[in-house]
Amino acid sequence: MKDLFGKALLDFQNGNYSEDIITSTNISDEDALPLPYLFRDYKDMPKLEQKALKLSKGSVLDVGCGSGSHSIYLKEKGFKVKAIDISKGAIEVTKQRGVLQAAILNILDETETFDTILLLMNGTGIFQELTEVSKYLSHLKTLLKPSGQILIDSSDIKYMYEDEDGGYWMDMNTSYYGELDYFLSYKGEKETPMKWLYLDFETLKLACETLGLQCELLFEGDHFDYLARLS
């Protein structure tokens, strides 16, 4: 990975903001991801994220922290927070913004235990593919303290396959419809494509049940998005 995401965050943090990140998937056209949005305050966050932050308790792990906005809010509220991301630039920015316990780390390499694990902004994305969900959930379970919780969000993107007659054009012979190829570019440079998973709630719940995790629906947004608590 070239870490174009991290490069963009560093540009914004250091006052060199001139253009946004461009994203697309194998089923959607190019779209701008505005850099200021990645630095939003609590008041500008979607209700789903606000709810997750309000429900956080004890020691918190912020997975895929990006610029650290969620961690900053929790730190200001007196929580002990650790922020992790695989992007070197993101971690640099998070530290510059005051979250000192921040590390370049894949969640599968995390070993500490926490009361709350946050996976926000389509937290299921890091699972990449449906076949990997159990592996990630099993590992996340080992990171929970007794009576700990995982707060995770995603969207059911079935609506993206709907045709004008209300039917769906998914190819049932291919992989799960929430598995996408995700493309990102910044300042004309293309990032290595990656896998990204949108997981519908029922599929997440089923995966949790097979691993002895409780899965509770906490919030549903206006656009097929939801927040779940795993415990």
Summary, kept brief:
With 231 residues, the chain is α/β, with parallel strands linked by helices.
Q: Care to describe what's here?
A:
It is a single chain. With 231 residues, this protein is an alpha/beta fold. The chain has six helices and twelve strands. A seven-stranded mixed beta sheet has the order 5-4-3-6-7-12-11, with helices on both faces. Strands 1, 2, 8, 9 and 10 form a five-stranded antiparallel beta sheet that branches. It is globular and about 50 Å long. It starts with a helix and ends with a strand.
The parts where pLDDT drops under 50 for at least 5 residues are none
Number of strands: 12
- Count of DSSP-assigned helices: 6
Largest sheet: 7 strands, mixed
Average residue pLDDT:
96
Shape: globular
Strand order of the largest sheet: 5-4-3-6-7-12-11
Instruction: Determine the N-to-C terminus distance.
Output: 33 Å
Beta strand %: 25-35%
How are helices and strands ordered from N to C?
HEEHEHEHEEHEEEEHEE
Percentage of residues assigned to helices: 10-25%
